[in-house]
Structure formats: structure tokens, C-alpha cells
Amino acid sequence: MNQLGRHIIVEYYDCPAEILSDVTHIEQAMIQAARDADATIINSTFHHFSPFGVSGVVVIQESHLAIHSWPEFGYAAVDVFTCGDQVDPWLCYQSLLKSLQAGHGSAMEMGRGQRSLLKPVEDAEVREQYQTPESVKAIQTRNIWFTERDDDIALSLRHTGEVLYRAQSPYQKVEVFDTYAYGKLLVLDGKVMTTDQDEYVYHEMISHPALMSHPNPKRVLVIGGGDGGATREILRHDCVEKVVMVEIDQLVIDASIEHLPQIASQFGNPRLELRVEDGIDYVEQAPDASFDVILIDSTDPIGPAEGLFTESFYRQVHRLLTPQGIMMVQSESPRFNVQVFQEIYSCFRGIFGAQSVHCMLISVPTYPSGSWSLAYCSKGGVHPLRDFDVEKTAAFSAKEKLKYYNEEIHSAAFALPNYVKTLLSA
């Protein structure tokens, strides 16, 4: 050979979008391409980005294969670099053309490291340091990452590379991955919904502050919450006689029961009435003063949850509350979704009155910025700090072995930093 290596620059066109957004398929395709060329695989690192695209590299003993995909254009850019004369990069090209189901591809080859321009190292001891002993064998490792990315912020979680659950409902794409740091991860349309390791923060805090301050909560309505976590927490309270849960997407329930059983543990509880339908329609048709506590456990204000962020919807919720009723709502992040955060509280104050709307802050590591908020809204003047029993709350937290909520956290959650007070007063 006149060169140390061969480098081909590849473009694949007219590939199915679902393939180009499937990080597991692409990683396996790239590994197979390396195997088809008899390359020695060292490791692989791949990232899936929300909402579009996969980037990754397979490091081989002979150099590397790298890819970035644009599912929205059906296009993937690949480069394959091999050193020596034992690995043919064009075998990788043919393998990927097939596995990516490309309509067509194009490529160009460059020689790398022209021997006529290189001077060998003369020192025998130095040369020996750069020779790999025959007894050393390459050990393949995998680094596959899910990334939720916004224009200005991103969260990446490394997972096993296997998709435990993936299905497209009429409303959204539902996926479950097995991450190394946070266990099972539920993803809706590329957005983190909950994980095994930090779910208790959100689910305990959207439930217990309202139930521990209401004088006698017997009937509770949950809109959304398809993973079952909020329902699990509500049903810890013996005083609750009935919970109605209205979730629009059956696939979220199915995925949670199958892969997040510790979260979805109460779907068989006889006190639960599960309804798979549109929560907006249910609220419009339900009779006045039907529920003591209503939880709106929704996703961000996009897709199927968009209608849950309107004044008309919350006026209907207000109608459904009993005279001393309490509404709890996930109210976005004061760091990440500032405008939505402010609009939500302005809306709630217009319906419930400024003195009856209280902001709570919680810490959820896998939510954008880690700082999230919940809105506590009281119809009849129940106050979250004056009307909760400290001793009763402490006993309840200890008895149920809660991981986050206790009597001190209940009070502390309503203590707001100055920047949040400023946002709410704007």
C-alpha cells in the first residue's frame, strides 16, 4: 500500500425516518458493518437526540466508523476509516446501504498517510512501545445514550442499548429504556416522563401535600398520570374512598405495567376507577362538586396535553371541586419554561383568587434544569401551611416509608427563592 489508511466519505439518501431515529438499530448496523469487513471492534458510543437524529462511532482496532443521521430528511452522513490492508471500507459501505434501507448512496475514497511523505521512527525502543502484543485481545464495550435536547439545554442518560418497549399510539410515541444511573426510563415523544430512581419525588409531592391539608378527602380525580405513580400515592390514604383516573393513552398504561411495575402497582386496586379517554371531555361532562381533590398530572403543553393548559379547562376543574376542594397541577419549571410557568399561575389566580394559589418547588434530577414546580390551588380557602397537621404528617410519612415527602418538606416546598417570587409577581 502507498498509504497508511483508507478513508471513505459516505452519504445515504432516502432512508426511512424511523430507522434513522432508532439509536439501537443504527448501533447494531454499524457494528455489523464492521464485522462484515472483518474489523476488530473495540467499543461503540451512540447518542439519540430529541427530537431528531442519532450520532455515533464504532471504534475498531483498525480506526473507526462514524455516523450522524437526519431522520427529517431521510439522510445519513457516514465516514469509514481503516488502516492497513486487512479491512476493506467498501464492505462497510455495502452493509450499511442495506441495513439503513437507503434508496441510494454515494461515496468517495481518500488515501490517508502517504508513505512517501512519512519518515519512520528509527529508535527501536520507541517503535516497540507502539507495537501491540499478539497476546492482547480487544474487548468490546458499548456506550449508548438517550439525549433529551432543547435549543439551550440537554440531558443524556446512558442505557443498555436495548429498547424494552416502543410503540406509536394515535397520540404519541411511547418508549422504555433501561438506563445505568436511573433504572427504567419512560419516554413520550422523546421527552423524559419518569424513571425508577427519582419518580418518587414528583409522585409523592403532587399527591400528599393536598391530601394532608384537605379536611376530609374522599373522592380524588387524576387527569393523566398513565404511569400510575400519583394513583399509587393517593391510595396510601385510607380516608380516600375512590380514585378516578382518566388517561388518554392506553399504551402508556401498558408500558408502565410491563416495565415499571413498582410505579404502576395499584392499577388493580378496587378503589380505583380507570378510564381510558380524553380528560378534557371527562371534566366537561362530570357533575358539579364531584371531587375533593383533583390532580392534573400532565406532560408539557404539547401534543395530547396541550388542551390541559387552557383557562376554559381549569374553570371546569374548579366547577368539579367540592367547596373545600384542592387542585394540584404540575406547573413546569421556573428555570426552563419561564413563560409557561408565569402564564399558568396568572391563569390560576384569575380562577381561584391570588390568595388561594401557592407555588411549590421540587427537585427532580431528570427533568430539565432539575428544578420543577407544582401548583396548589384551593377553592374554599384551605391553606397548605396553616391547615396541615404536622404530627399526623410525620406519622404518615414514617408509616408509609416515603422517600421524599415528610412534615418538614411539606413546609419547605412552599418557601420560594427570590427569583421565583419575582417571576410570580411580574
Description:
Helix 2 runs antiparallel to helix 3 and helix 9 packs across helix 10. This protein folds into three domains: 142 residues, S-adenosylmethionine decarboxylase (4-Layer Sandwich); 37 residues, Spermidine Synthase, Chain: A, domain 2 (Roll), CATH 2.30.140.10; 227 residues, Rossmann fold, CATH 3.40.50.150. 40% of the residues are buried. 29% of the residues lie in helices and 35% in strands. The model has no long low-confidence stretch (mean pLDDT 92). The protein has 13 helices and 18 strands. The longest helix has 15 residues. By secondary structure, the chain is of the alpha+beta class. It starts with a strand and ends with a helix. A hairpin with a 4-residue loop joins strand 8 and strand 9. Strands 6-1-5-4-3-2-7-8-9-10-11 form an eleven-stranded mixed sheet. The protein has a seven-stranded mixed sheet with strand order 14-13-12-15-16-18-17, sandwiched between helices.
Summarize the structure.
With 426 residues, the chain is α+β, with helices and mostly antiparallel strands. The chain has helices spanning 17-20, 23-36, 89-99, 124-129, 199-213, 229-234, 250-259, 279-285, 311-320, 338-352, 390-400, 407-412, 418-425; strands at 3-13, 41-50, 54-60, 63-70, 75-83, 104-114, 141-149, 154-168, 173-179, 183-188, 191-195, 219-224, 242-247, 272-276, 291-297, 321-330, 357-363, 371-378. An 11-stranded mixed β-sheet has the order 6-1-5-4-3-2-7-8-9-10-11. The protein has a 7-stranded mixed β-sheet with strand order 14-13-12-15-16-18-17, with helices on both faces.
